[in-house]
Amino acid sequence: xxxxxxxxxxxxxxxxxxxxxxxxxxxxxxxxxxxxxxxxxxxxxxxxxxxxxxxxxxxxxxxxxxxxxxxxxxxxxxxxxxxxxxxxxxxxxxxxxxxxxxxxxxxxxxxxxxxxxxxxxxxxxxxxxxxxxxxxxxxxxxxxxxxxxxxxxxxxxxxxxxxxxxxxxxxxxxxxxxxxxxxxxxxxxxxxxxxxxxxxxxxxxxxxxxxxxxxxxxxxxxxxxxxxxxxxxxxxxxxxxxxxxxxxxxxxxxxxxxxxxxxxxxxxxxxxxxxxxxxxxxxxxxxxxxxxxxxxxxxxxxxxxxxxxxxxxxxxxxxxxxxxxxxxxxxxxxxxxxxxxxxxxxxxxxxxxxxxxxxxxxxxxxxxxxxxxxxxxxxxxxxxxxxxxxxxxxxxxxxxxxxxxxxxxxxxxxxxxxxxxxxxxxxxxxxxxxxxxxxxxxxxxxxxxxxx
Amino acid sequence: xxxxxxxxxxxxxxxxxxxxxxxxxxxxxxxxxxxxxxxxxxxxxxxxxxxxxxxxxxxxxxxxxxxxxxxxxxxxxxxxxxxxxxxxxxxxxxxxxxxxxxxxxxxxxxxxxxxxxxxxxxxxxxxxxxxxxxxxxxxxxxxxxxxxxxxxxxxxxxxxxxxxxxxxxxxxxxxxxxxxxxxxxxxxxxxxxxxxxxxxxxxxxxxxxxxxxxxxxxxxxxxxxxxxxxxxxxxxxxxxxxxxxxxxxxxxxxxxxxxxxxxxxxxxxxxxxxxxxxxxxxxxxxxxxxxxxxxxxxxxxxxxxxxxxxxxxxxxxxxxxxxxxxxxxxxxxxxxxxxxxxxxxxxxxxxxxxxxxxxxxxxxxxxxxxxxxxxx
Amino acid sequence: xxxxxxxxxxxxxxxxxxxxxxxxxxxxxxxxxxxxxxxxxxxxxxxxxxxxxxxxxxxxxxxxxxxxxxxxxxxxxxxxxxxxxxxxxxxxxxxxxxxxxxxxxxxxxxxxxxxxxxxxxxxxxxxxxxxxxxxxxxxxxxxxxxxxxxxxxxxxxxxxxxxxxxxxxxxxxxxxxxxxxxxxxxxxxxxxxxxxxxxxxxxxxxxxxxxxxxxxxxxxxxxxxxxxxxxxxxxxxxxxxxxxxxxxxx
Lengths: 452, 376, 250
What we know:
Chain A is mostly helical.
C-alpha cells in the first residue's frame, strides 16, 4: 500500500519545515515588536516610552500580517503543487533547493523581475489599481481573524471588533470590483468576459455564503469572532459544525453531569432531542454551503469561471504580467487562506482541541506538560510561549491547512461549471437551501439550550 | 385574466471574438471566428489551414518508400491508421498478399493506437471542461505505457513507420507480447477508475448531457464518421460494415446508442471503444499465427504497379481514406487523403449555434479533431 | 422534492467517490523519472541519433560509399563524399555528413544500408547552440569499436565479415578521414612518438605552474592525444552509456 512512502515523507517534511519556519518568523517578529522591544524600552526609558509602546502595540498585528501573507502564499503554492503531484502520480517540484523547497521562492523572484506590461489601449490607471484593490481586502479582512485564531492573545486583542464577522465579509466582497476593473482595463475581450463573469458569480454566491454564516451567528448570538470561538471551546461536541451548542448538553452529560445535564439542556424532552438533531443537520449543511460559496467567492475550481483557462485563456488576468500578476496570484492564495480561517473560526471551533478536556486531562502527562510550559522562564518572564495560544495555534494551523488541502483535492478532481449552470445552481439550489436551513435554525434553537 | 407578456426587442451589440489560432482549447491551431451575443454564440466560422504541410503533394514527390515514413504525420495521434490506409491502397493496386501474421499484428498495433488516441482525447477533454490539474494525468500515464510498447516494436513513440506496404516491419518478441498482456490485464481497472471520477460526476453530466446534440440527419449530411456518428445511433463502423483485414475473424460489436447523441454519448462511445479494443487485442494475441511478416521487399526503389486504388480504415476519429494513383514508377502520381477530422469539423458551426461560450470547448472537444489531420 | 433530494445525494456521493479515487493515488508510486539523473531504459530499436559503425572485431569502417542512404533519405540530410581509388578501383569514403537538424529519425537509411554501417543509436541528447554544430561529420558520426560492438550486440545484427586483407592502402588512404581510434590498433611507432613528446612537454611545464589540478590535465591531454575520438564527442550521455555497454561483455 505504501509504495509511495518516499514522496509522502517528502511532502510531510516540506510541510513541517515550512510551517515551522513561517510561524517561527512571524511569531518572532510579533514578539520582538510587541513584547521584547516595549520591555526593553520601558526598562531603559521608563515612562517616556509609553507612547512608543502604544504605537508598537498597534503596529505589531499589521506587520505580522504583512510578513505572514507573502511567505504563507509561497508555501501554499508549493504545497498545492506537491499535493497535486502526489495525486497525479508525479513528483512535483524537486530541483530548487532540497526537495524543491525553494521552488516558489525562485518563482516569486522571477515574477518580480519580469517586465511589467500594460497593453496598448488599456486604461493604465485602472490596470494598475486593480491588483492593489484585489490584494488589499485580503490583508485587512484577515485582521479581526487574528485575535480569534490565537485564542485572544493579548498582543492581538486590540484588533478584535464587536462586529468582526461582518467586517470580514465586507472585506471579502470588495475584490469583485477589482476583478471587473481588471477585466475592463485590460482592453481584451476575454478579460472583459472574465471580469463580468466574476461580478455575476460573486453577487450570486455572496447570498448563500452570508446566509450560512448568519445561521452560525444566530446560534452564537453574537458577531464577535472571539466570542464565537470561546463559546465553542471544550471538545468537538461544542463546535458550531455539530449544532452550534445543541450537543453541549450531551457533552456535559458525558463530562459527568449525567441525566441531569441532559434534562437541563433538552428541557422539552423528545421535542428538544428532535430539534437538536435538526440543528446538527442544519449546521452541517451550512458548513458545506459556506465552503461552496467560498469556493465560488475566491474563484477556485469548480467555480473558477472568471479564469476558465480553456475558455477565456486566463480570464481577467490574461493581460497581466510581472509584479501585478504576482499580486493577483498572491491575493488568490491569501483569499483561500482567509476563507479557510473563517471556516475554522466559525465552524470548527477555532483553536479548540477536538478532544474534550475531561478526556484530555485524564491522560497522564498532558496536564503536567502544560503546567511545565506555563511555569517555564520562556512563558512566565519572556512571554515567548503561552500554552493557551501555543496549542490553539497548532490546532488552527492543522484545521486551516487541512481545509486548504481539501480545496486542492477538489481542484484535482472536479471539472468546471458552465456560467448559466453556475447561476442556476446558486439561485435555484443554494439560496433556497440556505434559507430553509436558516428558518429551521430560527425555530429549532428555541427548544434547545445552545450557545447564544 | 390574460396579460400578455410583451417581448421587447432589445438591441444588444454583438461581439466578435477571434478564438485561436493561439488559444489553450483549440487543440492546435484552429481559428474560430465567433460572433457572440453576450455569452451566446450566434455564428461560428472555423478558419483552417494554419497547419497545412502539403502532405498530398509530398506524397507525389517522394518515393513510395520515403513517403511511408512521412504519413504518420498526417494524423499524429493515430499514425498506425494512416500508414495502414496507405499500405492497403498500395497493396490493392499491387496485388500484394499480406501474410496473416502481419495482418494480425496490424490489427493489434492499430487497436493499441486507438487506445492511445482515445486516452489523449480523454485527458484533453477533461482539460477543456476545466478539470485541469488532477484527472488529465491519469490517461496520459497509461498512454505512456503503451508508447513504451510502441517504442520497442516500432522504434519511436508516435512516428511509428511500422505498417509498411506488404506487411509490418518488425516482428515482436514473446516478451513484448507478455508486456502487452500485462498491460491489458491492468488497463480495465484503470478505465473503471476514470469512470468513477468522471462518468457520473454531476458537474460533468451537467456540462455534457443535452449539449451539442448531433442529429442523425446532420451527421449524414456532413459525412460525419467515427464515434461521433455511432453515438448518434448510426452503426457505421468500417470494421463491421465493410470488413477488412482480419476483422471478420474477431468477435466484437459495433458500439451505438439508440438516440441522437449528445456530448456525453460521444464520451461514452470512446470509453466503450477502449474496452472493446482491449478485447480485440486479446483475441489477436490468442490467434496470432506464426509465419512471415512481410509480403513485399522493402527497398529504396520500391515500385507499385500502375493503377489506382482506394482504401479506408476505421481510425479513432472516423473513416480514414487514402486514394492513390500509381503510374508504375517509384513515385505516386496522385495522393488523396480523406480525413475524418476535416469532415467532422464541418459540423461545428451547426452544433455551436446558440450555445454559450463555455460549451464551445465541450462540443469542440467532444468531436475529437486533430488539426494536422484537418489541414494535412 | 424527493427526487430532488435523492439526486442531490446521488450527485454528492459521486463527487465523494471521485475525490476518494483521486485521494487513493496518494499511495501510488509516481511515474515520473528523474530524467537527467536516471537515464531512460530505451528499447534497442529506438531511433535516436544516427551513427556509423566500425567492424567491432577489426575496427574497419563499414561504409562502402554506396550512397543508398543518401538516396533514400526523405529529408536529404545525408551527404556522402567519396572518390574512386585509382589502385583498387573501389569507392572510398572521404566524408560523411548528416545534418541532424534536418533529420526526422525515420530510420529509412538504416534499413537500406547493405553493410549495417549506419545505425540509429540510443542517444537522443543532441541539443546544441547552433545549427552548424548539428551537422555531424565523419569523425563525429563514427562510433568506436566498443560502441559498435555494443550496438551490434544490442540490435542483434549479424557481425560483418572482415574485409579482404588489404590493410596497408586502406590505412594510408584513410589517414586523413579514418576514425582516429583505428590508430591505436595500427600502433605505428611514429604515431606514438608525438604523443609521448606532448606528454613530456606537459611534464616539463608542470614544475613551473604549481597547480594541483595540473596532473589531471596532463593525463587528460595525454589521453586525448592517444585517442582523440572521445574529445570530439563530449557528451556525458555517451560516457554513461559506455560502461553499461561494457558490463555485459565482461
